[in-house]
């Protein structure tokens, strides 16, 4: 047949729209054309399996070639090919998808999931980089004649007979002057590696097969070993450490989803490793921006998700809001939680050893996702300053006897910097209290979340008050000083410190405690911790507020009596300032000239 005509579209401007707006990334053309070739090949295999094609399937390798001299790229397949009439139907009527019709026709005759094509516009992405496109094709149907279709990017086309002896299609792109970068072999190889490295039909470029047709996620977990998963991970992320463990996803109802998610060793700087999960649709790479499919906290994972049911726009470049996306989101969250629960149940000791690597992930998930919280609350671990790990229920049992306040609330104490807060930790331990370690910036948010969800349970930083007041048990220690002497000591310390933002109080404590304790209210500490993490809404003003430290003088410490008995006011003030600076030093708050002066004053006092 020979014919000339106009492509059936609703606007003369379809090609500029395709070129400038529909496909924002021009390299997509190769993904679309190779995917179409895979489609044609899969259809032929399907027809052969159904007995509707009696010929030899033979070599079905798809070949991509670049001819720099002719300025052409050719994509050749040995699929079902097309007749002249089918060209008119599938190519000239834009947005009519041959794959859709094929699936509909054969949907009751077995598996139709191998057909990739969804988008009738995919072929026209070729005009993003081409001044002319040719299709030379021969249908698998007996007695068919080869046909050549030509179009120069306008709405005009020509179909005429041609010479072709092998079944299938050759799509020949005559590369435009503004797209000659695509004539570089390295550029084409890079695109094929990005989008086509796991396609289910062999793709050959420059004499080399560039894809793995049966990637790990397409196989049954029963036929795979740990070393298979680790090798695949190393292929995906060649410069990464071995993953901690992984989850093999495989579901076909109520949606189709396969894939493998890996738990990497997370860095404590809490940087999101975005673009580490790749999204595929029937083994075609779509995007590594998966925030609409995967909950944000799971963005800390690595791996691959493959689903034909994820709704994409016509260019496959962007996800679209859909009920299936929410179902997939929920399913993946559940699978991850179930895997962690299983690991904890099977080997609590081994799970605890991994906690430093996965604790950040679990806590972030509990903060940001209620469904994950409900499952994770049973395997989330809490580490104390002695290096012991507890679930929340076991920890509540652990502190039940000694850390209940007068209102019968359990009070869990915690440290954010074990070394810097050691003085306070030791004071708490002398009273028989246990202290948890919450040393990551996210912990300020985690603590807030925990208190909002767990009844009659509160957390208090170990240096938020003196040891006697951390847990209010309505008990009182008697002071060894009279009210008159207490007032005198308070005035000495206020004069020595000389800072209106430091509130001085006298408190009777054990003589074993420091003579001076410097504390900051729990509320103020939390606000500053959350502000440092970048949270807390409009709390940026906290960084400009004074420290608002409380100075608690231990009226029962022997040094206080020594101060009172000192020979003159200067020595009294020096001793008081020394005790105050010692308390600052224990918190790491004494630096620079203040530290130098403290050392000098210590020397002077020691020789008096």
Automatic annotation (TrEMBL):
Please name the GO terms that the record assigns under molecular function: ATP binding; ATP hydrolysis activity; ATP-dependent protein folding chaperone; unfolded protein binding
Quote any Pfam family the record assigns.
Answer: HATPase_c_3
Chain residues that bind ATP:
32, 36, 77, 82, 97-98, 316
Q: Does the keyword Nucleotide-binding apply?
A: yes
UniProt domain Histidine kinase/HSP90-like ATPase: residue ranges: 25-165
Q: What is the protein name for this chain?
A: Chaperone protein HtpG
Q: Which UniProt keywords apply?
A: ATP-binding, Chaperone, Cytoplasm, Nucleotide-binding, Stress response
Q: Which family does it belong to?
A: Belongs to the heat shock protein 90 family.
Point out the coiled-coil segments of this chain: none
State the gene name recorded for this protein: htpG
Q: Note the SMART domains from the entry.
A: HATPase_c
Q: Does the keyword Cytoplasm apply?
A: yes
């Amino acid at each position: 047949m020979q014919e000339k005509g106009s492509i059936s579209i609703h606007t003369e401007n379809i090609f500029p729209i395709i070129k400038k707006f529909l496909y924002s990334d021009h390299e997509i053309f190769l993904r679309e054309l190779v995917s179409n070739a895979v489609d044609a090949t899969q259809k032929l295999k399907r027809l052969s399996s159904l007995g509707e094609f009696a010929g030899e399937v033979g070599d079905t390798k798809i070949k991509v070639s670049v001819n720099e001299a002719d300025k052409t790229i050719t994509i050749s397949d040995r699929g079902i090919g097309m007749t002249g009439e089918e060209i008119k139907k599938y190519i000239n009527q834009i947005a009519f998808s041959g794959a859709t019709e094929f699936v509909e026709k054969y949907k009751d005759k077995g598996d139709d999931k191998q057909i990739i094509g969804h988008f009738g516009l995919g072929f026209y992405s070729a005009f993003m980089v081409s001044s002319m496109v040719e299709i030379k094709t021969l249908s698998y149907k007996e007695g068919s004649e080869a046909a050549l279709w030509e179009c120069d990017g306008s709405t005009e086309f020509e179909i005429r007979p041609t010479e072709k002896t092998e079944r299938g299609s050759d799509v020949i792109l005559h590369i435009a002057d503004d797209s000659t970068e695509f004539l570089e072999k390295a550029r084409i190889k890079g695109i094929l590696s990005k989008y086509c490295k796991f396609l289910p039909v062999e793709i050959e470029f420059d004499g080399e097969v560039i894809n793995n047709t049966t990637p790990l996620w397409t196989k049954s977990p029963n036929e795979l070993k740990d070393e298979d998963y680790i090798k695949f991970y190393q292929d995906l992320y060649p410069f990464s450490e071995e993953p901690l463990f992984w989850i093999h996803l495989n579901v076909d109802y109520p949606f189709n989803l396969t894939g493998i998610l890996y738990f990497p060793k997370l860095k404590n700087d809490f940087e999101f490793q975005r673009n580490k999960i790749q999204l595929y649709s029937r083994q075609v790479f779509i995007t590594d921006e998966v925030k609409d499919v995967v909950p944000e906290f799971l963005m800390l994972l690595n791996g691959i998700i493959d689903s034909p049911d994820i709704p994409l726009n016509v260019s496959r470049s962007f996800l679209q809001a859909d009920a299936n996306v929410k179902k997939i989101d929920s399913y993946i969250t559940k699978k991850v939680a179930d895997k962690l629960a299983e690991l904890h149940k099977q080997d609590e000791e081994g799970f605890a050893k991994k906690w430093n690597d996965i604790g950040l992930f679990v806590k972030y998930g509990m903060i940001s996702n209620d469904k994950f919280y409900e499952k994770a609350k049973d395997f989330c671990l809490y580490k104390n300053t002695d290096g012991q790990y507890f679930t929340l229920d076991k920890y509540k049992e652990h502190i039940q006897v000694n850390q209940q306040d007068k209102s019968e609330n359990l009070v869990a104490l915690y440290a954010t910097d074990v070394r810097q807060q050691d003085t306070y930790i030791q004071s708490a331990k002398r009273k028989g209290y246990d202290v948890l370690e919450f040393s990551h910036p996210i912990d300020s948010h985690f603590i807030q979340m925990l208190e909002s969800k767990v009844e009659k349970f509160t957390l208090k930083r170990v240096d938020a008050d003196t040891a006697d007041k951390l847990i209010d048990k309505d008990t009182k220690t008697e002071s060894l000083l009279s009210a008159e002497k207490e007032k005198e000591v308070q005035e000495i310390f206020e004069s020595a410190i000389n800072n209106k933002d430091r509130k001085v109080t006298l408190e009777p404590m054990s003589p074993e405690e420091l003579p001076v304790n410097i504390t900051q209210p729990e509320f103020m500490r939390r606000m500053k911790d959350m502000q440092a993490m970048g949270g807390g809404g409009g709390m940026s003003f906290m960084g400009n507020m004074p420290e608002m430290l409380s100075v608690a003088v231990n009226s029962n410490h022997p040094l206080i009596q020594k101060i009172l008995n000192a020979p003159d006011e200067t020595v009294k003030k020096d001793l008081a300032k020394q005790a105050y600076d010692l308390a600052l030093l224990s918190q790491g708050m004494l630096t620079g000239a203040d530290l130098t002066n403290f050392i000098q004053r210590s020397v002077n006092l020691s020789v008096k």
